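Risk register update: the risk of archive-format incompatibility is retired. Evidence:
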Amino acid sequence: MPGCALNLNIPLFDNKPVIVVQDLKHGLKTTHNQLCMDAHILSLGNFPIHFKMIQDMADHPLTLLFWHDVDQVDKQNNHAASCPFTKETLDFTLYHYSDHPALLSYLFTL
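Archived output:
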């Protein structure tokens, strides 16, 4: 959108982004669960991130996400938690859903 900007403040350690979590698997599960709660909405600045975006991605014929990794997923499933954050999913999102800058930032950052 012209005239809009998305500013992220990300803590750095040794010039690398830092996210403090118990461990990687726990962090992925928490991040996935935050994204896949259909009663909630996340926002980065003026840009929303909501469950419908992930559902739309899972419904896309060229997606790499499986529906069972998105809807009514086991909250402790390591595979389902990691799927939205893979390089392939990020590439797919960038190509097919580039109009969702907050979702792209969320998937890339986390």
